[in-house]
From TrEMBL:
Domain called VapC50 C-terminal: residue spans: 131-184
Organism this protein belongs to: Arsenicibacter rosenii
Designated name of the protein: Nuclease
Transmembrane domains' residue ranges: none
Pfam family, one: PIN_3
């Protein structure tokens, strides 16, 4: 299903906040393994979570700005009018689906699958998948490029600097067990 940069994925807040998950998602996007999308509302939530977790407001704003600068075409606009027309188990998630519809996305990457029912998403030709499954699928379809992206992530890891195995262990601690095991097998 994930064949190229033309494959578009909306990233939910819960896969953007954990830095280790975000790093791999962003490096894979940088290597054109898929096209990331998000909305202002998703990033507002991300910023709120960062501040709640003790990151200063200026630092949180800087991180959001850096992501938008790195992927200038990722920001979905004009999705708000769709929100009231959507029905999800948690109304607070409607903005994510609205952004995915407006972006003509193929998938929503979220670790909150219960709030994105398969049957309902199928009516919009969408599917929700967990970050670990999404990243594993990307690796499966392009071993070499995914491994290069991972190695560059490791080379750029600071605060603290980590080797490949420490990064893989941090993936495992953050729910990317299959992703870490797959990358480990490719090393």
């Amino acid at each position: 299903m994930i064949h190229s940069v033309r494959f578009t994925a909306v990233l939910d807040t819960n896969v953007v906040f954990p830095v280790v998950i975000r790093d791999l998602l962003f490096w894979f996007a940088y290597y054109d393994l898929y096209t990331p999308k998000w909305s202002r509302t998703i990033f507002d939530e991300w910023q709120e979570v960062m501040i709640r977790k003790g990151i200063s407001e200026p630092e949180a704003a800087k991180r959001v700005n850096k992501a938008n600068l790195a992927f200038p075409d990722a920001l979905v606009r004009n999705y708000e009018s769709l929100i009231p027309t959507l029905a999800l188990p948690d109304e607070k998630d409607r903005h994510v689906l609205a952004a995915a519809i407006r972006a003509n996305a193929n998938i929503i990457v979220t670790n909150n699958l219960k709030d994105f029912p398969d049957e309902y998403l199928a009516t919009f030709d969408l599917k929700a998948v967990a970050a670990d499954d999404f990243l594993t699928d990307i690796i499966d379809l392009n071993h070499d490029k995914a491994l290069r992206a991972f190695k560059e992530l490791v080379l750029n890891k600071r605060n603290p600097a980590m080797d490949e195995f420490a990064v893989l262990e941090s993936f495992r601690r953050n729910g990317l067990i299959n992703t870490a095991n797959y990358l480990h097998a490719l090393l």
